[in-house]
Amino acid sequence: MTKDPLTMRRARLLAVADRIDAVIRHIGESTAWLSLAMVLVTFAVVLLRYAFDIGSISFQESVTYMHAVLFMLGIAYTLGRNGHVRVDIFYERLSRRARARVDLVGTLLLLIPVCVLIIWLGWAYVAESWRVQESSREAGGIPAVYLLKTLILIMPILLLAQGLSNALRNWLFLSGMEEALPTSQGDVGHA
Hints:
This protein has five helices and no strands. With 191 residues, the protein is mainly alpha-helical.
């Protein structure tokens, strides 16, 4: 028994969304470990400073770098888990289909244009940082500010990928493929 071409296309699109989600999930779960690293490095900075009177600018800057990486790489993971703050006054009361419509329109009209704008505006800024191999202004600081600034481009690219996955899932759901939306992205009780 062969499936009709439309069902096969939908299944392929869902597989694309699944692959994107897997990559973003891997990045997000790996990045989450930076929280522990930040705590440990902060503890080490304080211990070295107050117990041994040893200061380290690069240790202190590394906490800031890890914090930036955590947020910039974790933002797409949070989007994929539907974890960003939203105004729930109306959204929570909507049916699952209405929420899928709102999410699809929001992705297409807000998320994608903002990500494209960040890439467009950030490109020259990041390129210049790479061109001069920008480093810390502090003596003894981390000599790789240009790597950190690269996150300005990586973050919207990851958000675009997750937004594409979410848009595909919402579109597939709205076109009749109920299994396209995991139950974590909508309440089971709404239909």
